[in-house]
């Protein structure tokens, strides 16, 4: 690269960054102070994140399901009470991994696509969704393949706005693509009693094959930096224990085994296959199983005195009815809400508390190979 090209690239990057901020935040935020900071950053050779695009299910949903008649919602009390003082549609008491990563990356927390005010920090994740269109179709969710179509629409808007596909490619190559998907497909598979269902390894190969196809689509659109999250210990989810009427609060190991097999296949895809298939791709895989399982087994040392029961809900393990709903499933008390949510691993029948997401996010951001491979998120975004 000649000095001139480098300078041109630098200007392009500044321009892209400022334009990105223009739409992500507000024109006022791209002021001279911020401009100076960016110039300093570029001069020092620091890299920075231009955008953030989030795909998947309720682990990352920031309110998508509020905006169409889904039967899987979390936009009522007491969801969101810890971080937002109001329900947002997030399926926890506060922030998710996506929110914590946005804080780390100093970008605006990605907004639901259906309620977006900008173009460079968008969240397509839909609670209940899976890779397969059939997963939770009766509950009305936005399946993963349709989330990709929504991203394609976003990208068209970007091209119109920046009036340059090259610039859009550049912005996307400096953006984070965060994906958490597969859990709902596998929980559905686990509880499917039909004798004709495919063997687990065949089913999982299909799921990871679908993920591979999706990464190809996002790569061709310009994405280079990907983080895929593995599955947590789904056999320790209160709804799984309650669904099987487990009396002793012990995790359901056959369900955890499903997660282990999926995680191994996902890791092979991310760590072995993707780098061979796609030039310059930088993909990392998060290992929530290895972070959360020890907390489920002996979290007392870290203040998690309740690792089985959901903080909020009703019935066995507070997990037979969704948090915020009465036993007859209308919106209203009586439901149970714990007093000290930070002592709980689970907020509701399916989802961790904000404190658990916070611990996981910190590990993914800054942690070692026990949490994220082949490098952590901070290293990925500094590349
Ligand atoms: C997964 O299974 C579906 C339904 O049988 C099929 O249409 C799809 O092509 C499969 N995907 C892969 C990657 O094998």
UniProtKB/TrEMBL annotation:
<protein>
    <recommendedName>
        <fullName>GDSL esterase/lipase</fullName>
    </recommendedName>
</protein>
<dbReference type="GO" id="GO:0016787">
    <property type="term" value="F:hydrolase activity"/>
</dbReference>
<feature type="signal peptide">
    <location>
        <begin position="1"/>
        <end position="30"/>
    </location>
</feature>
<dbReference type="Pfam" id="PF00657">
    <property type="entry name" value="Lipase_GDSL"/>
</dbReference>
<keyword id="KW-0378">Hydrolase</keyword>
<dbReference type="InterPro" id="IPR036514">
    <property type="entry name" value="SGNH_hydro_sf"/>
</dbReference>
<keyword id="KW-0732">Signal</keyword>
<dbReference type="InterPro" id="IPR035669">
    <property type="entry name" value="SGNH_plant_lipase-like"/>
</dbReference>
<dbReference type="InterPro" id="IPR001087">
    <property type="entry name" value="GDSL"/>
</dbReference>
<comment type="similarity">
    <text>Belongs to the 'GDSL' lipolytic enzyme family.</text>
</comment>
<dbReference type="InterPro" id="IPR051058">
    <property type="entry name" value="GDSL_Est/Lipase"/>
</dbReference>
